[in-house]
Amino acid sequence: MTYTMIVHFNCIFKHFLKVGENMSRAGVICEFNPFHNGHKFLLEKIKSNYADEIVCIMSGNFVQRGDIAITDKYTRTKAALANGADMVVELPTVYALSSAQRFAENGVRIASELHCDIMCFGSEDPIEKIYNALEILDSDNVQQKIAQLMRDGDYYPRALSNAVGKEYAKIIGKPNNILAIEYIRACRRYSLTPVAIPRNGVEHDSEMISGDIASATMIRQLIRNGRDYAQFTTMHVTHVASIERIEAVFLYHLKTFKSEELKRIADINEGLENRIIEISKRYNSLIEILEHTKTKRYIMSRLRRILCCAVLGITEQMQHNSVSYIRVLGFDDNKHIIQSRSLPLIVDVRRGYDLLDDSAKEIFDIDIKATELMNIASDQQNNEFSQGILKL
Length: 392
Hints:
9-stranded mixed sheet
């Protein structure tokens, strides 16, 4: 695998199928944090049953749980390409650090732009159950009940659970199923066929091991603790990142923010900016600030996303705007010409960046900041403007 500089075009890549054959292309929204055997199983299942090509729309250097990735996006792109992905493009950090709805909406839009026919995702339940839960959730009666419960003081997860009942609350409450519901909604808007593939081996965030399958959470623990993880992933992580290594950056920003600055940050409302400022002045560790700031309404994962957005400068307006470009991180060399329906494809960043409008540049600038934080957190020197596209 080599780094190859390719001029910015809207059309790239050679087709690997015979001329005249009908093709199908699957989109997979992912983080690969890290890429592991469960992900390999997913890609193999897609190739054998659903699609000829797979386009992975991958979070960059920060991930949706509100954390820096275990290692940089280029290393994770290499692993994906070596194990079944045909192309990897980046889900911009602005959307990678957003709610499930915005995360899914922008990821599916990118897949649609790249002519994907289907959207594949892992789930903890069969898709029929997820469809049933979605139908119940979207009913006027349930939506009105959720709104009333929240007006009465319930926080959203509990209001949701009480409104849909125990059976459906159990389905909706599972992490992969939460995203699955949003993928299905987005697929309806962009005319993709959703395909749910049951998880293989262990549950999301589980610390259990099943053969050579372990959750990404478990593997990250092994990596950070210096223990052997080779049986669970083909990746060899040489530059391990952790948010603790950039804690000083977080503390500086949190202790110097002004209320009007924080108020513009994504997902901050109801006076949360004042609570963050007050608590940040009292504590000198990120975990203490998180623990004392969280409430029933602002659970830990949501709060972690908010603090990451604050440090990176991701505003509510940025997340409100739809994705406006597609950054290609890498591809299999055996591809044909494909096009984006309307969004510019960025392959050579130096040239592609200059073609973006100011709003798109603002989104891309966040990715540049995220890469610099990853460099500090993992002791690397990646440069977005000189880093070539990865080519298998």
